[in-house]
Amino acid sequence: MAQNLAEGICRALDVIGTPCVLEVLEDLANGRSPYLRDDDPATIRAAVDCLRGVGAITSAPRLSGSVGAHVAITPQGRVLFDRLVEIEEIAARCGVGDHQVLRALR
User: Which run of H or of E encompasses 71?
Assistant: First the structure.
């Protein structure tokens, strides 16, 4: 049990600490491709790799001529996104400024 907890904490820290992970997750939750972001493509790829590693998204190889791999949010990724939104809403009700929670996690 302790090993699973430690692994879970490490995965959570990876998600929180990887640049653009939350933005990529939000894009996918809202039906947008993260590859259309103005961020550095290497940063987007690292965020996609991190989210794939925790099972939040699936991806297929990039097709010839396309911008990036096809990525889709998984049910697990949807739950993660929904919980992050809940945290943000609770923080707002408690007087924490707009989007400060997710910004702090980024």
Answer: strand 70-73
